[in-house]
Amino acid sequence: MLIIGLGEAGCNIAELFKSHNQYDVELLDEDKGIKKCSTVEEYDGISYKPRKKAIKSASAGILFVCGSGKIAGATLRILKGLKHVNMQVVYINPDLDYSSHEEQLRHKVHFSVLQEFARSGMIKELILLDNKTLIELYGHGTIYDYYQKVNHCVYSMIHTLNYCNNVKPEFSSSHKPKDFSRICTIGYSLLEKNEEKLFFPLDNITETSYIISINKEQLANDIGILPMVKALAKENKEAGRQTSFAIWSTEEAESYYYTKHYTHFIQEIKKEEE
């Protein structure tokens, strides 16, 4: 799988995937694979040629980008250069409390345009994550590891979801998301607590998938697992959402789940972000 980091934030996340051989990682930043430009418009006009390895072997890929930077304007050119690859885009919604007016305007444009790319089919899937929410949940620490924890959280969840996409589950009641449901976010909870936290406040959710990792010993001995999982799915079905789940075994001590919530509705900028 091809992993692309675009801009400083995107590169910091993509860098973490280098620890796994199954990923072909490309880091694109100012004067690092992309020439430095002074405006979004200039980045939108750059020339991008995929590496030969990506052209020959990659059938799927993920691009990580934060929308407040000028360099995010290069996203369209990169996607066009990789039109033979089924690309997902992980869009990091910036913390606008600490963003300049220019950064906020760039975010509004990129946030809107990428959703249109998804609806048009240029992007296989647009995964929306909110930086402020991630920091509130995982960013506590010293100045030195403030963003490192957030970056590792994003890397860990995406790597886990990729793993589950390529390994047969122990048990599943799954469905393939509708082709037009290309805008989504991710949630997380420990299974025992069932206190799901969404990493972006997605509106008008139409479909939900539970990706559940259960401790190997618990999976073998706890007869209450399947009823608990079915109850989770039932809650979403009663809310009018098409719902599925799949269960994998894990060596980790605590059982947990990720959710992927999908919609085909365009997401608006929240009032508190304006």
Which CATH top level class of the largest domain fits?
A: Alpha Beta
* Portion of residues within helices: 25-40%
Question: How far from one another are the termini?
Answer: 36 Å
Give the overall shape, derived from the CA principal axes.
Answer: globular
Beta-strand fraction estimate: 25-35%
Count of discrete alpha- or pi-helical segments spanning 4 or more residues? 9
H/E element sequence: EHEEHHEHEHEHHEEEEHHEE
Mind telling me the CATH superfamily name of the largest domain?
Tubulin/FtsZ, GTPase domain
Count of folded domains? 2
Helix/strand-derived category reads alpha/beta
> Roughly how many Å is the radius of gyration?
19 Å
The whole-number mean of residue pLDDT values reads 91
CATH topology descriptor of the largest domain: Rossmann fold
Which quaternary structure do these chains form?
Answer: single chain
Low-pLDDT stretches are none
The CATH architecture classification of the largest domain is 3-Layer(aba) Sandwich
Major sheet: 12 strands, mixed
Number of strands: 12
Can you give keywords for this protein?
274 residues, alpha/beta, Rossmann fold, 60s Ribosomal Protein L30, Chain: A, twelve-stranded mixed sheet
Describe the fold and architecture.
It is globular and about 60 Å long. The longest helix is centred in the middle third of the chain and has 21 residues, at 146-166. Helix content is 35%, strand content 27%. Helix 1 packs across helix 7 (146-166) and helix 6 (131-138) crosses helix 7. It folds into two domains: 2-163, Rossmann fold, CATH 3.40.50; 181-263, 60s Ribosomal Protein L30, Chain: A (2-Layer Sandwich), CATH 3.30.1330. The protein is of the alpha/beta class and 274 residues long. It contains nine helices and twelve strands. The model has no long low-confidence stretch (mean pLDDT 91).
